Amino acid sequence: MSALNKIARTLVSNKRGILAADESIGTMSSRLEKVGVEPTEENRRVYRELIVTTPRLSESTSGIILADETFHQKLNNGSTFPEFLDDLGILAGIKVDTGAKPLAGASDEKITEGLDGLRERVADYVRLGATFAKWRAVITIGDNLPSDRAVRANVHALARYAGLCQEGGLVPIVEPEVLMDGAHSLAQCQQVTTSVLESLFEELDLMQVQLDGIVLKPNMVVAGAGSLERPAVTDVARATVDTLRATVPVTVPGIAFLSGGQSPELATQHLGAMQSLDPLPWELTFSFGRALVGPALETWRGDEGKRIAAQKALSERVIANSAAR
Ligand code: 13P
């Protein structure tokens, strides 16, 4: 078993999942502001410390994805976040993309940036304790969207990122997110997700990315947030698994879903329903952000007296998702 394969398997096995706590400074700041917390560097650190010090987190969490800012910060006990996670038996991951920017000449579509200097940044993060990385591409469904060029540009960047990570010893989480924004149907989401994943695996092959040393992080196949369609949990589970079966090679060790704006409870129900469908060739787990930390942030609201209740809210979500597996 290669070192990359071993890390990838650790991330997706034993009914554990990955916690995405890697919101960019801008996104984290606006989430803090929404709950009445001043968006300072220190408050972002305090909030992330609350998350990682949640009791018994390692029982259901295999890895935590951190942002660059957090990676360089310290907890109150003096250890860095990656050192602290290592002591807990949780793998430390790093978001290495630098965000989705408008694609040239196409203001409705985005290309994720961050390839320049990535080889050197990967080496730095490995030195600081990272074992895996994340890069998120976003694909929009709309009138005549996604365009071929947006899909191609994004899967190309994902494949080059994945190659650079593997060369430097990090397992890449490969995240092509078909967004829930819009009024599209479940069938449209299925069609777009299928074609994005097909293009992605062609590109990963071209770039000679070792498929047993990645974790795929896709969207579930759901109807758009603005759609009137409310598919049953079993329909989402079936459509998602059918899409993955049609596109994802069995050498990929595991698939860890993003939550994408689904409610925490629904995301967990969908994950649970997929596990009961025929034997699956890969591990299916969670790599949720909002669906794990949302209730904790809402509970905390910057009040240290609510710290334990907030950690309990996070614990409930990770335990529920682990149980759904
Ligand atoms: P959500 O689960 O909130 O969609 O976030 C997952 C993630 O890591 C997005 O890049």
Description:
By secondary structure, the chain is an alpha/beta fold. It has a single domain (3-324), classed as Aldolase class I (TIM Barrel, Alpha-Beta Barrel), CATH 3.20.20. Helices cover 47% and strands 16% of the residues. It is built from twelve helices and ten strands. The chain has helices at residues 3-12, 25-34, 41-52, 68-71, 81-88, 118-127, 148-168, 186-206, 233-247, 264-275, 290-300, 307-324; strands at 17-21, 61-66, 91-95, 100-103, 106-112, 132-139, 171-178, 215-216, 254-257, 283-286. The strands form two sheets. The protein has an eight-stranded parallel sheet with strand order 1-2-3-6-7-8-9-10. A two-stranded antiparallel ribbon has the order 4-5. Helix 8 links the parallel strand 7 (171-178) and strand 8. Helix 7 (148-168) crosses helix 8 (186-206). It is globular and about 50 Å long. The relative contact order is 0.15. The model has no long low-confidence stretch (mean pLDDT 98). Residues 20, 136, 175, 258-260, 288-291 line the site of 1,3-dihydroxyacetonephosphate. 1,3-dihydroxyacetonephosphate (13P) is lined by residues 20, 136, 175, 258-260, 288-291.
